[in-house]
Protein: Ferredoxin-like protein
Amino acid sequence: MSKSKTPFGTVTERLDKNRYETDVEQSHIQIDQKAAAATSAGPLLVRVCPAHVYSQQLDGTIGVLYAACLECGTCLAVAPPGVLSWHYPRGGKGIIFREG
Ligand code: SF4
Structure:
């Protein structure tokens, strides 16, 4: 995460004020690994996500650490069609913003 200083602290410091209510029963992000491999979507998803939710695994698949999601929608905007299934976490779950 960026260490850029703002008048109110670094981005990391500000994001650290947020809270998460993780839905341990259900991920709100699913990846079609075949579609991801066919479109080489992995590096793109890894690069665009500000929360480092996605990771390229040694076996070529894409890992998803959905609990860290900021719900910004960037991945959904750039993913090739058919790669991602993304929806907001169930009610009361996900990120609870404390700033911004
Ligand atoms: S919605 Fe934003 S934070 Fe969440 S996985 Fe997609 S790019 Fe990352």
About this structure: Residues 48-51, 53, 69-75 surround iron/sulfur cluster (CB under 6 Å). The beta strands are 5-6, 9-10, 19-21, 29-31, 54-56, 62-64, 84-86, 94-96. The two ends are 17 Å apart (CA to CA). The chain has one domain: 25-96.
